[in-house]
Amino acid sequence: MNWPLAPILLPLLTALVTLFWGRSSLPRRWFVAVSATMQLVVALHLTADTVLGRTFVLGLGAWPAQFGIVLVVDLLSAIMLSLSALITLASVLYGYAETSVRLEHPLRATLTQFLVMGINLTFCTGDLFNLFVAFEIMLIASYALLTLEADDWDIKHAFPYVAINLFGSALFISACGLAYKLFGTLNFAEISLRAALLTGDFRLHLLALVLIVVFGIKAGLFPLYYWLPNSYPTLPIPTSALFAGMLTKVGVYVLLRMFATVLPHELTFAHTLLAWLAGATMVLAVMGAISRNFIRGILSFHILSQIGFMVLAIGFFTPLSLAACVFYIVHHIVVKSSLFLIGGVALRLNGTDDLDRMGNLWKHTPWLGLLFLFQALSLAGIPPLSGFWGKYLIVVVGLQEREYWLVGASILASILTLFSMLKIWNGAFWTVSNSVPLRTGDRRWVGMTTVVAGLTVVSLVIGFGAEGVLRIAMQAAERLCDQQGYAREVLAYLGKAGGNLSP
Amino acid sequence: MQLETALLIGVMFTVATYLVLQRSFVKILFGFLILTNAANFVVLAMSGRPDGKVAPVVLDPQSPMVDPLPQALILTAIVIGFGVAAYLVFLLYRLFLDQKTTNAAELYDEKESG
Amino acid sequence: MTGPQSYIFKTVARFLFFLVNVFALYLLLRGHNFPGGGFIAGLATAISLILLSLAIGLEELHRVMRFDPVRLAAAGLTLAVVTGAAPMLFDRPFLEHFDMHFSNVPFIGGFHAGTPLVFDVGVYLVVVGVACKIIFALGKSTQRLRALVAEEEARYSSRVEQPIEEEVRTEPEPAQNPTIPDAT
Asked: How far apart, in whole angstroms, are the C-alpha atoms of residue A379 and residue A356?
């Protein structure tokens, strides 16, 4: 019965053991790698069970729902847990290939595990305040990772990240208070039942708008994204891949969960606002990407642009578009993390990731070039790679909804994405120049590339098996929207089915 | 009581926003501390009018008590705020040591950072 | 720096150290059903340690304490997690707590005990560890001592890392209090 707890408890215990272990050593590395693999296995097991229609519910401490915290793992949570475990494993292994045991910072493994614990708790929780706590665990770990190995230039760019997230946290607590006053409970299932009785109340719209600001900061929506493109490039490569893959997607996941499962579906104003903010994010962020001239900077802006696509799918708010959003999240997490890791290999080989001073990579390391090509074209949305299907569905829904401007914006953003990917390709891979050193003598890049190859295989499987993945995404979206079903599962577990529903 | 609380929260949010937008590190730090407390106040205010109710300590089961859940929530929020405040103090101190300035505007001077 | 050189303060601080800790223990034990609990008790103990550090100096206190506050916090967290996870062995939900009432215990009479107390002890240790670490590290860096002692440095910092206080210490500036900002 405690299965939903495993993805939270395993990282916590791993973090504690590594904290006691102290110095990094080979056995410690093995321990962390084995633990990360176990987390992946557990998450896949949960996914396999939830695909068959099960929903795991766990009431912590056996308290009744209004006072106790509920953990709920449905299909979408299980998919997100698997992705977070996959990216963590890749990031950990890449870190091992990149840094020798002697130079590894001993706290990096510990903090990464705390970060993963926070992320997983966000996916599992069924309680608004617990969501806040999960966010804070995640954020504090991310602050620490951001400044752990930072030099004096990096640390300057950590400050805006911390500042805006502190502001977001304060707003989040206020939103919790507002929700508690409105609904008299913080449990997602009970909120969804009681909110249905409040439809049309302006306070509900107010709550929705506050939540858009709070999670918009986390996800990096249009007016609130300036913290991201400067802070992510200062991270060490494996950590930045983990951040790029997971952290903003946590924001998107919570938006999905809030608008589809918790709040009533009639909040059309909030949905329209989300769609237009997403359109603005897509176009403006991709222009930011074009203006940058170093790989990690370009990729950081692309995270935001892709966030635009996912949130646009939430804004359209049809069952098909939510499925497209889930599919897009799955595709994007894998592709974006591997692009960051490829950028790291290129940085290691050329000694810089400034595109003006890079080159020769295609000539000497064609395998790396091939991996980059797959992932970059997938990001831009070239069929039959994984990025195409998500974008295709979003455009189809947009045409159905007659939102031609937003469809136009998304196509423009895709073309500009392709353009900036070609810029990286030209600058780093295609250019042949004698003045650029290529450090292939440093054999570490082989191990790093192997890790990336593993992720690329996953993303190719998503692309070529799009039909199967889409079917799962459809099921996830369907269950996500089924507020009655969600509430029934949770309340039945807590023995409160048909309990007092008045606020 | 509710009106005064609402006004107090409004004033605290205003003061916090004003301070956070200042240049001096110390003012920024105080701004964030006030911001956290203002947010905690919002949650506390949600437990309703406290008139005639006792603190949520079960001594006398007959007398009505204020809603204990918001208090439990802000206890958690205070603990988290404590940790984050400590982090912020260290971050600002480290920024001061690295950049030899306590002025946030100098920190992001384009001419220097390039 | 070794704190104020006042004999009265030193003596009183040493005495108060025990008094505050007794009070902390009282808060810890009554915590489950009354105001008090692990968090507040932990803060009280942390305050007593800070008081002691003012009396005898941070470096001396480190020699006396002989343990690393971070490890203390980690031990507390482990204790809390283990207490929370123990019911899972009996197929009960995580964090479920049990208590029982003992009556007719010799010398004490009746008392109430349960697993929440163990959990609270874990919380207490976490709070003492974290609060001490924060205050000591901040205190040391502002006094231009190294924030981590050598043993902790071996454990928590990378080999390529330079402590940031180092750089400041080698500067020829007079040791004024550097944290006063300009008033703009």
From this structure: 23
Q: How far is CA A475 from CA A79, A251, A313, C143, in A?
A: 11, 21, 16, 60
**Residue B58 located in a structural domain:** no
Asked whether A35 and A147 are in contact (CB, 8 A), the reply is: no
C132: pLDDT strictly greater than 50: yes
Residue A421 or B55, more confident: A421
Cβ-Cβ contacts under 8 Å for A182 (sequence gap 6 or more): A195, A198, A201, A203, A204, A207, A503
User: Residue A260 in contact with residue A319, Cβ under 8 Å?
Assistant: no
* DSSP code at position B23: S
Which chain C residues contact residue A61 at CB under 8 A? Answer: 93-97
Q: Structural domain of residue B85, as residue ranges? A: 2-50+67-106
Say yes or no for a CB contact (<8 Å) between C184 and B103: yes
Instruction: Give the model's pLDDT for residue C180.
Output: 40
Reading the block at residue B111, the tokens are 């001419």
| First CA to last CA distance, chain A | 30
Residue from A375, A418, A459, A146 nearest A289 by CA = A418
Predicted confidence (pLDDT) per residue in C86-121, tens digit: 888 887 888 787 777 777 777 766 677 778 888 889
Residue B111 lies in a domain: no
Among C residues 159-178, those touching chain B with beta carbons less than 8 Å apart: 164-165, 167-168, 178
What letter would DSSP give residue A354?
B
Number of helices (H), then strands (E), in chain C? 7, 2
Whether complex ipTM tops 0.85: yes
Total of domains in chain B: 1
Q: Which residues contact A290 (CB under 8 A, 6 or more apart)?
A: A416, A419, A420, A423
- Residue B32 in contact with partner chain C when CB distance is under 8 A: no
Q: Is A16 in Cβ contact with C93 (below 8 Å)?
A: no
- The domain spanning residue B98 has which CATH number? 1.10.287.3510
Q: Output phi, psi for A406, to 5 deg.
A: -70, -35
Q: Between residues C65 and A41, which one has the greater pLDDT?
A: A41
Spatial CB neighbours of C100, under 8 Å, sequence gap ≥ 6: C112, C113, C114
Domain layout of chain C by residue ranges: 7-169
Residue B27 within a domain = yes
